[in-house]
Amino acid sequence: MSIGERLQTLRKQAGLTQKQVAEILKMSKPIVSQYESNQRTPSLGKLIRFSRFYNASLDYICENVDEKGKFLGDLESLLKNDKND
After folding, report:
1. Whole-number pLDDT of residue 76
2. Segment 47-73 mean pLDDT
């Protein structure tokens, strides 16, 4: 699932329209639409705003994990797993 698809899924789970999200997050509706359709990629600042708004981890939005509240993990764990591969 792409970043845009994740943003769209989160919006629909929240029961909001693109217009409502745009108004709440102070951006235009066409921008929200372009993010959701993968025509544009949100900046890091925008991704953080979406993350806080939807109460979803950046790891989830950026496709690193498949559960909304999960995180990829700390650096130490990643390095340990990397050495085992």
Report:
1. 55
2. 78
Q: How far is CA 62 from CA 5, 7, 71, 85, in A?
A: 10, 10, 11, 23
- Read off the pTM: 0.75
State the residue for tokens 């845009």: 4
Q: How many CB atoms lie within 10 A of CB 61?
A: 21
Domain 3-84 has CATH 1.10.10.410: no
Residue identified by tokens 């909001």 is 16
Asked whether residue 38 carries a pLDDT value surpassing 90, the answer given is yes
What is the residue extent of each domain of the chain?
3-84
Angle between helices 3-13 and 44-54 (to 10 degrees): 30
